[in-house]
Amino acid sequence: MPKTTLYNTKAEKVGDIELNDLIFGVEVNKEAMHTMVVNYLANQRQGTQSTKTRTEVRGGGKKPWRQKGTGRARQGSIRAPQWTGGGVALGPKPRSYRFTVNKKLRRLAFKSALSAKVAENDIIVIDEIKLDTFKTKEMAAILKAFEVENALVVTAGRDENVVRSAANIPGIKTSMATNLNVYDVLKYNKFIVTKDAVSKIEEVYA
Question: What is the pTM of this model?
Fold first, then answer.
């Protein structure tokens, strides 16, 4: 089993913690992680882009000149795509970019992302993050102790004080253990997780 150091919020070592091999020690599958990142980004797209076709732009009801005898190319409307102010040919229309990934691949990608963090020593396990109130200064002090400027902070459940304390710190995002996704795990340089959150992740994904 992979083992990592357990810290307190002052970045002092308080012990070691063993991580589940089936989640934090699997062989990293880059293809699976790539698929899940593409899936996440595609699902975030609104798909509201739209262009007007020749039937939707205003004007152009009258034939600009007669069909034959002028020496010019025949034209049926001044709103055809080749005209300035005309409609767009084959332009984008509202659509959904969503696609699904099977459960087996999703789990493999998630485990690969966590295992990559362990392998690269980018995981920081803290015994607990306890804030009496939401105060950016206190959260910033914790991050400074670990010399971290870009991190995903994961707690077992929603802790409003932690969420609101980290909200105004650039490069920091908070998440619950059950709401993690591969994109966020890979996006941030450090993966800061509480001991209880580790147990929650192992409980859900083992």
Answer: 0.84
